[in-house]
Design a protein that fits this description.
about 35% helix, 20 strands, single chain, eight-stranded mixed β-sheet, alpha/beta, Spore Coat Polysaccharide Biosynthesis Protein SpsA, Chain A, about 425 residues
């Protein structure tokens, strides 16, 4: 069977003739690698995803309503003690694992390298984002007398650099035996005409397919099987860039156990109607998060009779699942969203084009789209100053400056409480 001819036939069928021209120019190993890559791509899926970029997102026929939550600050002493006891018991029994999503680069921060290797200027000497997470985990281990298994999801782009960084820093004192690193899946990038982009390596450019790929990547990497073997019953999934993230919140875990749900999440109140965060709701009787890019302004501005935002519970990437929930989701296909991005590429003459404006689409699934597979979710409302200090932008909101202020304020407050 002529693999090259097969590749050409596929490319013709899906109007990707520019790649055929490139194939004719390549020889040897480069040609073989490109042919091999073409055979692994689901062109029908990519065409569908591209066609969806032309459609408007509508919620008209959907029944949307606010989602119930418990406010951590308003729990009675009895409620909190009950939740904490249940959560502690599960962690101490070795039934708890954490996953950190660390597939991103620090490009938006002006940082060269994986986001987790970014150093936040706290207390003069600074701390790496990975280091901050490790401190959080080590504190939980000390408190509950156990070492929590830690799974780190990287991307193909940053995996080698992440592993080298953690090795060089001796995993910041975390026992390496309890750390597992795996990579997330990818999808090709297409330009505004639906043509696949070619990278400098003369391969079709691919990018991580969003944090929704975490579930299937846990399965395909063998991490899910490893968790089951260890007797894990609850899995926390959070991102690398929230410096106030509590990966072992016994109140959240205990609430989920008490309410007998398969999924739970922590929220904080939206700062204002236009804050760039996804919001929780119920759509057609299922839990859902609507991303800020897809939230109609009218809906974002709605308030209840107490003057609070009707859809004000922000999704802060602080999610908890039973192992059965992860297994269920990992077998499902999540919907994909398109992001209009700037991506350099090689044209038909082999020249690199670096665009000044967004020129292509990246397709990604969101972790919260899996919530719709369940009838219910337990939401614990936390406080921004205690739970949410993301490092996303170089300046302004959610920047190193705001994260540093929130981080130092939180730890100063905790230290002062201990000294009283």
């Amino acid at each position: 069977m002529d693999k090259k001819q097969d590749a050409i036939d596929i490319l013709k069928k899906y109007n990707q003739e520019h790649i055929i021209k490139l194939l004719e120019k390549l020889d040897g190993k480069r040609k073989q690698e490109l042919i091999k890559q073409i055979q692994t791509i689901d062109f029908h899926q990519i065409t569908e995803l591209y066609n969806n970029t032309k459609k408007e997102i509508e919620f008209k026929e959907s029944k949307i309503e606010p989602l119930k939550y418990l406010d951590k600050a308003k729990l009675t002493e009895k409620q909190k003690a009950k939740f904490d006891e249940l959560g502690e018991k599960a962690i101490k029994a070795g039934e708890y694992a954490v996953v950190t999503m660390a597939g991103g680069q620090g490009t938006r921060l002006g940082h060269q390298g994986p986001k987790g290797t970014f150093k936040l200027d706290v207390y003069g000497k600074g701390k790496y984002l990975f280091e901050i997470l490790v401190e959080n985990l080590k504190e939980a281990n000390q408190q509950y007398g156990i070492t929590i298994p830690w799974y780190i999801m990287t991307s193909r782009e940053n995996n080698a650099e992440t592993v080298a960084f953690l090795e060089r820093n001796n995993y910041f004192g975390y026992d390496k035996k309890y750390v597992t690193i795996f990579t997330q899946s990818e999808l090709p990038l297409v330009d505004e005409d639906g043509k696949l982009l070619i990278g400098k390596d003369y391969k079709i450019k691919e990018a991580s397919d969003g944090n929704g790929g975490t579930y299937s990547s846990l399965r395909s990497s063998g991490c899910l099987a490893d968790m089951k073997e260890k007797g894990i019953k609850w899995v926390f999934i959070g991102s690398v860039d929230n410096v106030l993230l509590k990966m072992a919140d016994v109140t959240l875990l205990g609430m989920a156990i008490s309410q007998k749900v398969q999924i739970a999440s922590k929220s904080v109140v939206k700062d204002n109607p236009y804050e760039r965060v996804g919001v929780f709701c119920k759509m057609n009787s299922h839990p859902k998060v609507i991303e800020y890019t897809e939230l109609p302004t009218k809906m974002a501005e709605q308030r209840d009779r107490n003057g609070e935002l009707k859809y004000g519970e922000s999704h802060i990437m602080c999610n908890l699942y039973t192992i059965d929930a992860i297994e269920k989701i990992s077998k499902e296909t999540l919907i994909y969203h398109s992001a209009h991005k700037k991506n350099s590429y090689i044209n038909e003459d082999g020249e690199e084009i670096v665009p000044s404006e967004p020129n292509s689409y990246k397709f990604e699934s969101f972790i919260f789209d899996a919530f719709e597979f369940f009838d219910d979710i337990a939401i614990l409302r936390g406080k921004r100053e205690d739970d949410f200090a993301p490092v996303k932008n170089k300046e302004g909101v959610d920047s190193p400056k705001t994260a540093k202020e929130l981080y130092e304020k939180f730890w100063n407050k905790r230290t002062n409480k201990k000294n009283l």
